Amino acid sequence: MGFTKSVMITFLSNLLLFFLSIINTTILSRVLGPAGKGVVDVANNFLSFATLILGMGFAASNIYFLGKKKENVDKIFGNNILIVVLGLIVLVPFYFIQIHWQFKFLQGITNFQLLAILITVPLITFKSSVINVFLGLQDIVEYNRINIVDKVLSLVLLAVFLLIAVNPTAAILSILAGTTLICVWQVYIFVIGRGITPKLDSPLMKVMLGYGLKAQAGNIIQRLNYRLDVFIVAYFLPIAQVGIYGIAVVLGETLWGITGSIATIVFPIASSSTNKEEMVTFTNQITRVSFSIIIIFSIIIAFIGKTFIILWFTQAFAPASGALLWLLPGISIFSVSNILASYLAGVGLVEKNIYSSIVSGIVTVILDIYLIPRIGINGASIATSLSYIIFTLMTIWFYIQHTQARWQDIILLKGSDIAQIRSFIANKMNKR
């Protein structure tokens, strides 16, 4: 499948996923209110971090090593299962530690809710890793199909569970149910549909862990940039503020739909590419075109954000509009590093992303701790925005050092780009 078609399929899939996420967020906001939604946001944040840590970087390793040798799919599938089983060992003691210490960053989470969350962690780890096996095989259709079914199923189950009981526990149990069903479907696709028998391969496991842990170190630190502010908001502010801040984050990150779709495809292509010069020229162009589009959409969101939030999520979430405005500059600029970081990872330079993540992660922690107690969720947005900008500047620097590209080639839209876009659109219209 060609790059343009792959990106379009992924972009349209991401667009649908965005609308499904908005509906999901709307249901949580209107049914549970700021405080109830805040509890679910903290639960989702914990799931996000736990699955990232216990996944050991296999989501990235799957893509990288399948890009090198697709015949290893049975061994990679088996190694993924083993990593999930090993991850279970960590979860049991954590449950009892939390019961004893009651960490403040998990405020609002009951013991039963925590148990449901911890059961969900290995399932999401498996789901997230195995779906990237499809991406490594460059089976873009199956990859997007599973993502869409996952979101639709999550939305349906959320509605059903909230009809049974209107509380955060029902929402958390709906996540567990949906994740379980998707994992069963993934196993069915591989074992029954494709006749793949999972196998363990120690030498391959070793190199996958080596690459995965390097990639994961950067991902964990970068996830701190994405989501640590949620825990810090939960620590310093009332739980309702977490729910309000979550609205700003969801709306702001919609801008990544375009670059995220491209980055998803760039990684496996870069890992299997043999023509560096052609790949660099290609990456430069899609980055500057995407960035220009993101700027336009960020301006639109800035103008309509407050009205949309009040009309769609109710007046109770109106303070999210201010936090959204502070998030937009960083999120817009960070869209550049979405693509460039995927290129660096695809050519094996994952350590460069780690360096960028460490520096920006330090900035996030320092500014969050200083600003959130003083100016609330707007402080979280400012800290995140500055962190994203620093990460992007460092990523651009590393990319330039590796490729010898000019920063103008990465950022500034060219007349030739516009001409190509017009030609592409005209050709599509003529075919229709």
Question: What's this, in brief?
Answer:
The chain has one domain (3-421). It has 432 residues and is mostly helical.
Low-confidence stretches: none
Overall form: globular
The figure for the number of domains is 1
Q: For the residues shown, what is the average pLDDT?
A: 82
- Count of alpha/pi helices: 15
Strand content: under 5%
Largest sheet: none
Helix content: over 70%
Q: What are the secondary-structure elements, in order, as H or E?
A: HHHHHHHHHHHHHHH
Measured distance between first and last alpha carbons: 20 Å
Radius of gyration: 21 Å
Q: Assign the structural class, choosing from mainly alpha, mainly beta, alpha/beta, alpha+beta, or little secondary structure.
A: mainly alpha
Query: In total, how many beta strands?
Result: 0
Describe it for me?
Helix 1 packs across helix 9, helix 7 (202-236) crosses helix 8 and helix 11 (320-346) packs antiparallel against helix 12 (350-375). With 432 residues, the chain is mainly α. It has 15 helices and no strands. It has helices at 3-54, 58-68, 73-101, 111-136, 140-164, 168-193, 202-236, 239-252, 256-272, 276-313, 320-346, 350-375, 377-403, 407-411, 415-431. The radius of gyration is 21 Å and the shape is globular. It has one domain.
List its traits.
single chain; 432 residues; mainly alpha; 87% helix; globular
How does the SSE layout of this entry go?
Blueprint lengths: L2 H52 L3 H11 L4 H29 L9 H26 L3 H25 L3 H26 L8 H35 L2 H14 L3 H17 L3 H38 L6 H27 L3 H26 L1 H27 L3 H5 L3 H17 L1
Helix pairs in contact: 1-4, 1-5, 1-6, 1-7, 1-8, 1-9, 2-3, 2-4, 2-7, 2-9, 3-4, 4-5, 4-6, 5-6, 7-8, 7-12, 7-13, 8-11, 9-10, 9-11, 10-11, 11-12, 11-13, 12-13
